[in-house]
Amino acid sequence: THSGTLEGKTVLITAGPTYEAIDPVRFIGNHSSGKMGFSLAEEAARRGARVILISGPSSQTLHNQNIELHKVTSAKEMLAKVFEFYDRIDIGIASAAVADYAPKEVAKEKIKKNDDNLTIELVKTPDILKTMGEKKTHQFLVGFALETQNEEENAKGKLEKKNLDMIVLNSLRDEGAGFKNDTNKIKIFTKTEKKEFDLKSKDSVAKDILNFVESQLLK
Ligand code: C5P
C-alpha cells in the first residue's frame, strides 16, 4: 500500500538535535535521537518522494540510498541548509529538536576550570519552522510539538503562530512517547481537524503522519 503515492513530490525533513558550541570541545545539546525524522524520511522515500533530510548530530543510519542526507551541527546551519531548498519543496516536516538558546559567543580556546561559578550568556536561536511559515508560498508545512502542560492548546497555538498546515503533538505524559523511545503516541491537528492515534513504533507513526499529509493534499 501507499507505494508511489508521493511520486513527483519533494519532501524536506529536519531531524535530530542541534549542538550549540560553547568552546572548541563543548556544546549545549539535547537527547533527541533523530529516529522520528529518519523514519519519516524512509517512509516518504518508499512512497516515491524526493527526500531531503537535514539532520543535526544523530547516530541513525539510512537504508534508502535515494534520500539526500545533509548533516548539520547548529540551529543556524540547519536554517541555512533548509533555505537552500525551500523554494523547491512541496512538503516541509520539522521534526528536529532545535536548541532554543545558544551561547552568545563561542570561546576560541577551551574554557579553563578556574572560578567556582561560570556564567555563559545565551541568545535565542533562529526558529527554523517559524521562518519557513513566514516565507510560505505553496509549501505544506508540518510541525511537531512536545508539551508537558496545556498540550492541545499549546499545539494549536503553534499551528497558528508558525503558519503551519498541520501539527503533530506528542505527549511526554504518555509512557513510551517522544524523544529517545522507539515508540510514539501522537495527536494530529489541522485548523479544523483533530485525530488521535495509539502508541506504536516510530516507523508506524511515520506512516500515519504521511497518510494524513496525503489526505490533506487531496483536499
Ligand atoms: O516552539 P517549539 O520549539 O515548541 O516548536 C516545535 C516545532 O518547531 C518543531 O516542529 C521544531 O522542529 C520546530 N522548531 C524549529 N526551530 C526552532 C525551534 C523549533 O524549526 N528553533
From TrEMBL:
GO terms for molecular function: FMN binding; metal ion binding; phosphopantothenate--cysteine ligase activity; phosphopantothenoylcysteine decarboxylase activity. Transmembrane segments: none annotated. One of its GO terms (cellular component) is phosphopantothenoylcysteine decarboxylase complex. It comes from the Bacteria. Its cofactor is FMN; Mg(2+). CTP binds at residues 100, 110, 126-129, 144, 158, 162. Its EC number is 4.1.1.36, 6.3.2.5. Binds 1 FMN per subunit. The keyword Metal-binding applies. Residues 6-214 form the DNA/pantothenate metabolism flavoprotein C-terminal domain. It catalyses: N-[(R)-4-phosphopantothenoyl]-L-cysteine + H(+) = (R)-4'-phosphopantetheine + CO2; (R)-4'-phosphopantothenate + L-cysteine + CTP = N-[(R)-4-phosphopantothenoyl]-L-cysteine + CMP + diphosphate + H(+). This is Coenzyme A biosynthesis bifunctional protein CoaBC. It comes from Chryseobacterium phosphatilyticum. The lineage of its organism: Bacteria, Pseudomonadati, Bacteroidota, Flavobacteriia, Flavobacteriales.
